[in-house]
Design a protein that fits this description.
Number of helices: 12
Strand order of the largest sheet: 4-12-11-10-7-5-6
Distance between the termini: 43 Å
Radius of gyration: 21 Å
Number of domains: 2
Number of strands: 17
Helix content: 25-40%
Shape: globular
CATH superfamily of the largest domain: Type I PLP-dependent aspartate aminotransferase-like (Major domain)
Order of helices and strands: HEEEHHHEHEHEEEEHEEEHHHEEHEEEH
């Protein structure tokens, strides 16, 4: 009789030749547990998803209640479904007044695809500006605006009309012109190894988009919902996007994404042609019920307000000659080492000792620190102890 691991390798697609092959039976709080009930601290939140940790009871209950009422009914945008309506209403109440209309999708990558289509349709322009070392997903359109040739060269040809500029380099903003439909940028670059935008740069970018009639798309798929200490990362910069992209933590552990714009911009997909962007499962009622519950927990427990102190503790404890730099904002941190080889050994040692961390696609010599926002001071101390022990083991 084959083991579950053997069946996984035989029947489930893998994306590398060296999967971690960790088997988990359950998850609760910031921990995931294997068959032997060994707990692993999740320091990456399922890559930015589990801001409330795993199996939050309020979210789980909301899922169960919605499942008892109904699940999938019909394609997005025709039926009035309470979970979608209430979730969109809550999101809009927390956003600037120009962000008025929510289009729910299945994922962050699909939110990117919809936003790029919307920008081209609304402006009537074809040129797109993206950023070196950016990451927006793996579908063809999202891959086209990824700023790392290593991960996209095998899939060309991709979308035409895309130019790349450098993050935080104000001089490059001159490349945005009257032919540019949109600029798509992560408010904080994630897979680049957590690169935080300068306030002056982000404001100059907003000004340049205004001057040229270009739509500004802010990708906060990783950075939103308290991860940086603000509900939305753009709140740190005094700017408002024309289109906002959300996913990951949006669903409280369930798969949902969104692109959000003004009513005027969003109306461009309603005609010439009608049904300008459609999705079978986008805004699934169970996912929306979970997302609304997760957002309510986040706000009621004032979790974003706890983030700055937790960031400070990580920075205070993670001090070692082998650590070259700690970059980031809030609980979205990159711990830079000398090389990928050293970083990978440290990560593997941490996993052996019950702490799950990871590296970044475009910055493989940096360790990802992005735990659930519910992590406690003592849990941070324990995690840092494991990380420093792993570093010392190889030094």
């Amino acid at each position: 009789m084959p083991t579950l691991r053997q069946l996984f390798l035989a029947n489930n697609a893998q994306t590398t030749n060296f999967p971690l092959l960790l088997e988990f039976e359950r998850a609760e709080g910031i921990y995931m547990y294997n068959k032997q009930d060994k707990g692993y601290m999740d320091l990456i939140s399922g890559i930015g998803v589990s801001n409330l940790g795993h199996s939050n009871p309020y979210v789980v209950n909301a899922i169960k209640e919605q499942v008892d009422k109904y699940m999938h009914l019909m394609v997005y945008g025709e039926y009035v479904q309470t979970p979608q309506v209430r979730f969109a209403e809550k999101l809009i109440s927390l956003l600037p007044s120009t962000l008025q209309s929510v289009y729910f999708t299945n994922s962050g990558a699909e939110a990117v695809e919809g936003a790029l289509k919307l920008a081209k349709r609304f402006t009537g322009r074809q040129q797109i500006i993206a950023f070196h070392n950016s990451y927006h997903g793996s579908t063809h359109g999202a891959l086209s605006v990824m700023g790392n040739e290593e991960f996209k060269q095998a899939y060309r040809p991709l979308l035409p009309g895309i130019n790349f500029i450098s993050f935080n380099k104000i001089g490059d903003l001159e490349k945005i012109n009257n032919e540019t439909a949109c600029v798509i940028v992560e408010t904080i670059q994630g897979e680049a190894g957590i690169r935080v935008a300068d306030v002056a740069y982000m404001q100059a970018l907003r000004t340049r988009c205004n001057e040229t009639g270009t739509l500004l798309i802010l990708d906060e798929i990783q950075a939103a919902f308290g991860r940086t200490g603000k509900l939305f990362a753009f709140e740190h910069y005094g700017v408002v996007p024309d289109i906002l992209l959300l996913a990951k933590a949006l669903g409280g552990g369930m798969p949902v994404g969104a692109f959000i714009a003004s009513n005027t911009i969003m109306s461009a997909i309603k005609e010439n042609p009608i049904l300008g962007h459609i999705t079978t499962f986008g805004g699934h009622p169970v996912c929306c019920a979970a997302g609304l519950a997760a957002l309510e927990v986040l706000l009621n427990e004032k979790l974003p307000e706890t983030v700055a102190g937790k960031e400070a503790l990580f920075r205070q404890l993670l001090v070692h000659p082998a650590i070259k730099e700690i970059r980031g904002k809030g609980l979205m941190l990159a711990v830079e080492m000398e090389s990928f080889e050293f970083n990978k050994k440290v990560i593997d040692r941490c996993i052996e000792n019950g702490v799950i961390t990871d590296w970044f696609l475009h910055c493989s010599n940096a360790m990802r620190i992005a735990p659930p926002l519910i992590i406690t001071q003592n849990e941070i101390k324990n995690a840092c102890k494991v990380i420093l022990e792993a570093i010392n083991y190889y030094c």
